[in-house]
Amino acid sequence: MTEQLDQNPTAPRPASSRGTTADPRVVPAFAAPPPGRRRRRHAVVGTGHRAGMYVGAVTGDHADVAELVAWCDTNPGRMDHYDREVGAALGLDGPAGLPQHGPDDLERMVDEERVDVVVVTTPDATHAALVARALDAGADVVVEKPLTTTVEGCRTIVEAVERTGRDLVMTFNYRYAPRNSTLREVVASGAIGTVTSVHFEWALDTVHGADYFRRWHREKRTSGGLLVHKSSHHFDLVNWWLHDVPARVYASGGLRFYGDTNAAARGMGPRPERGTGTVGDPWTLDLTRDPRLRSLYLDAEHHDGYRRDQDVFAPGITIEDNLSLVVDYRGGATLTYSLNAHSPWEGYRVTVNGTEGRAELEVVERGAVVLDAEGNAVLDPSATPDAAAAAALEGSVRAEGERLVVQRHWEAAQRWPIPAGIGGHGGGDAILLMDVFRRDLRLAPDPLGRAAGYKDGLRAVAVGIAANRSLETGQAVLVEDLGLGTDLTLDAPQTTGRADAADRADPDRADPDRADATTGAR
């Protein structure tokens, strides 16, 4: 597998994201492309860090079915960065020389470059217009989460899909992380009965969580806040685990840690204007310490003035850092959800209660944020040679890892095995990319339905949009009252079949004639 540049550099890189060999149970089987079949022509709209995952995939593992033919962005420096990367991947002496376009030229780009698929990785608030324009221009679309940030954006996309009949793929990579797809397997198997409630707690640490307050995400008008930008991942997981539709949302939260007011209240004193050039401040990010960030942002800053390393305690932050939700589902289950963006560790806990038992998933992606000898936060403490950082982790009671426990009523708890994944986001990215680029070559349907479309995107952002409205009004919000432009009802639920107790404790003891609950293969 080609190494994928798949995560924000401040995100944890746990062992589950570093695997290079995946368990066959979680990897779809694909046919080889027919001889002589033309590769699909892709254009990338939005050339920030997130685009790297798709650029690496098209020039690497999926170069036999896809090719890059154009860039589209407001910043020529970032387009130049990726053009050099593609040139290197193709073995050229210099940049690839792919055509560069501005957003106003999107339709002309699709036409002149004969684009089959537009990959949208721009700031969230721009998704709706770009997606609709690409569809209308005659291209299919792959869009990063979230689908969009507003009710109006939802309607724009729904109308464009219905008007054109073209394909729109949502890249919910967390569905493909084996720990999450295994929990889906547990719920769908009926092992814990009918779900009555879910508790989902997500902790973002003071490296990764803080990063949302340095960049454009810090403004709600651009990102929709963490409830839309970040939590759409989490709401999609719950929607998918339950195979249900959110109906009613109540939210509480606020900006209680970051921002100038909170800094002043804690007596923090003067703050640096930006992270680059600052030493010994764990809250800052120095772009010169990461060659990729330097090229994409610092060296390209003069084109548009965008600063990737703003101070997290500066004025102008309009998003929340502490959030709590109660979400009622049409099927009767209730979700309680919390997000904290200044935790000393990063990971999540999920508890699913059912009429016949309970499932508990606990994931530690980074057990601690530690400092180097100069007082800077260490992005990857598991890889650093720094003695102080290593000593801080030695003997930690919060070790990196993941565990899924299933316990039925009247039975002892059983640890449910989690298969190995491949690539970032808990081993899910590389598997997702297989579906993105060669979905039509699948040899069998996915019994867990991991591939996501625009209605999955709508159901996920519906929770965040309703929650933002609840924060504004102090009242619970009915999702159907949002008027998203389409019916969110799901098809009949999929089932993976019911495993007996011996199978749950040790899948290797399962009946060889029973369809495997993860792959559906016999």
TrEMBL record:
Domain Gfo/Idh/MocA-like oxidoreductase C-terminal: 184-370
Biased composition (Low complexity): 489-499
Compositionally biased residues, Polar residues: 1-10
Stretch list, region Disordered: 1-41, 489-522
Domain annotation Gfo/Idh/MocA-like oxidoreductase N-terminal: ranges: 41-169
Compositional bias of kind Basic and acidic residues: 500-516
Classification via Pfam families: GFO_IDH_MocA, GFO_IDH_MocA_C
Gene Ontology molecular function terms on file: nucleotide binding
Homology family: Belongs to the Gfo/Idh/MocA family.
Official protein name in the record: Dehydrogenase
Native source species: Cellulomonas oligotrophica
